[in-house]
Design a protein that fits this description.
This protein is α+β, with helices and mostly antiparallel strands. It has 11 helices and 27 strands. The strands form 5 sheets. Strands 10, 15, 16, 17, 18, 21, 22, 23, 24, 25, 26 and 27 form a 12-stranded antiparallel β-sheet that branches. α9 packs across α10. The chain is elongated. Bound molecules: adenosine-5'-triphosphate. Adenosine-5'-triphosphate binds next to α5. Its EC number is 2.7.1.91.
Length: 539
């Protein structure tokens, strides 16, 4: 790994003091009559047409932060003594038809023809390409003072593709939108197409990780869940989970991809633009720490198990919509809207007990101080839960009581058959519409559930909706969640609290619980966050 980058001094170039590192005059590939003055500073590549008419001296300034790579090459035509260098940028540009901006590809290619010697021209082109790459690498400045490290260069990435994710187009989306970008950035990659559920999990559990600088998932969140858990199941889990992970959206929900796009400071975009945005982040290769939650599952019919989760634990309405809308998979992300409307029509109430360890003991829930919410915990709920969804639930290996624990110890949790510790808050209600614990900002491309969440805040953002809410109020709540304004809506049935750990003990005989969108065995579940345990390519 390369050394960490720290916050730079404020750039003086903005005052016009930027030093020109390279200057040259070149033609382009298409037209050898028109010449361009090209100058490179630490920050920008500036291109200006050389003409005797000042009025048409248009100038293009490309920010090197938007540059993914640059290369030099000779023309196929042996009689051409010139050499070329190309630089590849993905700046935010106005969309052609729509309002707003999205990252769009801009390639600048110049012909170097300084002397008759083709080798000397190629050397000069290589100097330009190298200087552009080096300057753009220096532009990987962290935001908000957060430290990032970089994926090792040249980068060797294993790309795991689930060919059935989303509308079944993950592979073609990758070929169309991302493959050329990775080539431009010099990211060498090996494509592995998954053949069945858990294939990726087994692969990374056994892989020689020294061969890879990054593991990249082209799928929805389900494949990332497999990879995270495959890494955590290894004997060398502590080292393995440090492998930088990348995500390219190929599913229908794409929560993690939507979250990292959001963290990059960009505005919401369409699905294909999201793919380009995540591809860009992957090419830039900045790595930051990501929280994982350790989730204990304990249905009445099986031994307790533990899985690692990067996104969410859901019970009630949201879990139901996620799973039931599978049948509308062919319509892509719209499946969640349709699923929401269908479930609204037959709204269910779920009984159970919820308890949590607040992130901040001085916090408040629903206008009341946390301490006023504490009620004695009687842990007699989980035994009444049936594993009614065991057939569709993902089987996870039970953790034998005497097995050495893979993964960090969960110091905040006690076994599920014991009452929660006395410093926990037990929610007085036991009728819910939904319970949602999330640790990323988005739970879908259009589902901005936890606006305050960041990748590595060490916080579980717990939202629950109490029974008694009208259908129309619930619909309004979901519409607000699309924009991330739901917490400002003062909905009396919605409670939001930041926690470090939680326990949910459903008592309704039927229901679904999902972890990162994957159905797990129905029954008591508890989780604690482990701050920054994994590493993700993001910005
Ligand atoms: N080749 C495969 N065939 C069938 N299932 C697979 C294959 N590869 C992975 N899977 C499984 O498919 C499930 C869904 O994958 P994933 O979540 O990545 O896509 P998705 O459901 O389309 O996306 P999203 O969660 O965003 O809706 C996961 O449980 C994963 O284990």
């Amino acid at each position: 790994m390369d050394p960490k980058i720290t916050e730079p001094d404020p750039p003086s170039y903005r005052n016009g003091m930027s030093q020109v590192l390279r200057y040259g005059e070149f033609t382009t590939t298409g037209n050898r009559k028109v010449r361009y003055a090209v100058s490179l500073t630490e920050w920008d590549l500036t291109i200006q047409k050389i003409t005797s008419t000042p009025a048409i001296r248009s100038k293009m300034v490309l920010n090197l932060r938007d540059c993914v790579g640059s290369r030099a090459f000779r023309a196929d035509d042996n009689t051409d003594t010139g050499a070329y260098f190309s630089a590849f940028f993905y700046p935010f540009k106005k969309r052609w038809m729509n309002s707003g901006v999205a990252r769009q590809r801009v390639e600048q290619c110049f012909r170097v023809d300084l002397v008759k010697d083709p080798r000397a021209n190629l050397e000069e082109a290589e100097k330009w390409a190298r200087a552009i790459r080096e300057c753009s690498a220096l532009q990987q400045h962290p935001r908000n003072g957060i430290l990032y490290s970089e994926v090792r260069r040249p980068c060797r990435a294993m790309l795991l593709v689930n060919p059935h994710s989303g509308k079944g187009q993950a592979l073609s989306l990758f070929t169309r939108h991302v493959q050329h970008m990775l080539n431009e950035a010099g990211v060498s990659h090996t494509l592995v197409i998954t053949e069945r559920p858990n294939h990726a999990r087994e692969l990374v559990r056994e892989a020689d990780l020294s061969q890879w600088d990054a593991l990249v998932i082209i799928s929805g969140d389900g494949l990332l869940f497999e990879v995270v858990n495959g890494l955590m199941e290894r004997e060398d889990w502590e080292r393995a989970i440090q492998t930088p992970l990348g995500i390219l959206p190929g599913g229908s929900g794409n929560a993690m991809a939507a979250s990292i796009h959001h963290y990059s400071g960009a505005q919401p975009v369409s699905s294909e633009e999201l793919l380009v945005s995540c591809g860009f982040l992957l090419c830039k290769g900045l790595v930051s720490h990501m929280d994982l939650a350790s989730v204990h599952l304990g249905s009445a019919s099986s031994s307790p198990t533990r899985v690692f989760s990067f996104l969410s634990v859901a019970w009630g309405f949201v879990a139901d919509v996620d799973v039931e809308s599978e049948r509308y998979r062919h319509i892509g992300a719209a499946r969640f809207t349709l699923g929401t409307l269908v479930r609204l029509a037959s709204l269910r109430v779920y009984q159970g007990r919820l308890a949590f360890l607040p992130a901040d003991n001085a916090g408040r829930v629903d206008g009341r101080p946390l301490c006023s919410l504490v009620v004695p915990c009687q842990n007699n709920f989980h035994n009444s839960c049936n594993s009614n969804n065991a057939s569709r639930a993902r089987k996870h290996e039970p953790v034998p009581a005497d097995a050495p624990l893979k993964g960090p110890p969960d110091s905040l949790l006690v076994p599920l058959d014991q009452p929660v510790p006395s410093n926990w808050v037990v929610v007085p209600e036991d009728n819910f519409i939904l319970v949602l614990a999330v640790y990323q900002s988005h739970l879908g491309e259009d589902f901005y559930t936890a606006p305050e969440s960041t990748l590595n805040d060490g916080i579980i953002h717990l939202l629950y909706v109490r029974a008694g809410i009208s259908r129309i109020a619930l619909l309004q709540l979901f519409l607000a969640m699309g924009k991330g304004t739901h917490l400002a809506n003062n909905c009396p049935h919605l409670v939001y609290v930041q926690v470090r750990a939680l326990r949910l003990e459903p008592s309704s005989p039927k229901g679904l619980i999902t972890v990162d969108g994957e159905v797990v065995e129905y029954g008591p579940v508890q989780a604690q966050v482990h701050s920054g345990l994994a590493r993700l390519i993001s910005r």
